[in-house]
Amino acid sequence: MLHLTYMTVSDRLLLLVFSSLISALGLVSTYPNSALAQAAKCPTPALERFVRHKVGRGETLQSIAALYNLAPDTIITMNPSLKNGRVTTGSNILIPPYNGIVVEVARGQTWRELAQKYKVRADALFELNGCKPPSQIAFIPASNQSPNRVSSSASSTPGVNTPAVQITGYPLASVAQVGFPYGWQLNPKNGEVFFHSGIDLLAAIGTPVNAIAPGTVVFAGDRGTYGNLVIINHGGGLQSRYAQLESIKVSLGQQVKQGEVLGTIGQTGQPTISQPHLHFEIRSNSSLGWVAQDPKQYMK
Ligand SMILES: [Zn+2]
Questions:
Q1: 106 occurs within a structural domain
Q2: How far, in Å, from the CA of 190 to the mean position of ligand 1?
Q3: How far away, in angstroms, is 258 Cα from ligand 1 center?
């Protein structure tokens, strides 16, 4: 947990906001049915897209920043206890969806005024903060990043402008039945609409899980709702994620070949469906972070 004693008044205010962000707890966000149409028009507000990252063995501020495609300074800003640049294994840190800061908004202040003050576009602020007038707190993206400049703001973020390399492969030795598809789905248990950021491939517990393409392991460990998770960066702005694993056979920083065994099928974390499966994701790098893609087009 975060250490409140290190925090200033405004940090506590932020924490208050963060702790109410139920939708930010990992790979599954839930929305009432009526919010679906709205969600199609306006992206989920940045303040609701913070996630908690539990620091794993061997991870550094730099490796975590790379994992989320963020500047280390952004992570320090959101976590004042990391001022010395060191992270502690087992501690939780707040990860924002983009580089930027969270600020208090003065009564009556408009997006235009905030945009001028922080030298960012007013329309970007409006969109990143839920497409409504400012409330008490706002997320201000780093001035070189805004939703409208996804393809032209790469100078400070390696890889952003590189066209995605075309990778194809399959994360299991044989083709598996899809237990739950990617995208907006209706939760059969409670009827709520939520976004499923990957595809669930049914397979027996203990089945080996393979890298779909060569790359570098940037995460290997337990991560909340994902359970045991392996993340591979493939270069060219593409990443694959293998979740709900029973065991992990690779370690942070390891280079893997296509087909190399990463771990085995399990039921760790909070799987969407009860049958044993691999939760498999593809994410592409943009100035807005690692964005989930439909894995289908990468699986052969
Ligand atoms: Zn899943």
A1: yes
A2: 16
A3: 22
How far apart are the CA of 211 and the centre of ligand 1, in A?
17
Domain extent for 282: 178-298
**Residue 98 sits in the same domain as residue 213:** no
Ligand 1 center to 196 CA (angstroms): 6
Q: Give residue 209 CA to ligand 1 midpoint distance, Å.
A: 15
Tell me: do 202 and 131 sit in the same domain: no
In terms of domains, do 131 and 189 share one? no
Instruction: Please tell me the predicted confidence (pLDDT) of residue 189.
Output: 72
E-state strands within the chain = 28-31, 51-54, 92-95, 100-104, 137-141, 178-180, 183-186, 193-196, 199-202, 208-210, 215-222, 228-235, 238-248, 255-256, 261-265, 277-286, 289-293
- Which residue ranges in the chain fall short of pLDDT 70? 1-41, 143-165, 188, 287-288
Q: Using an 8 Å Cβ cutoff, are 239 and 290 in contact?
A: yes
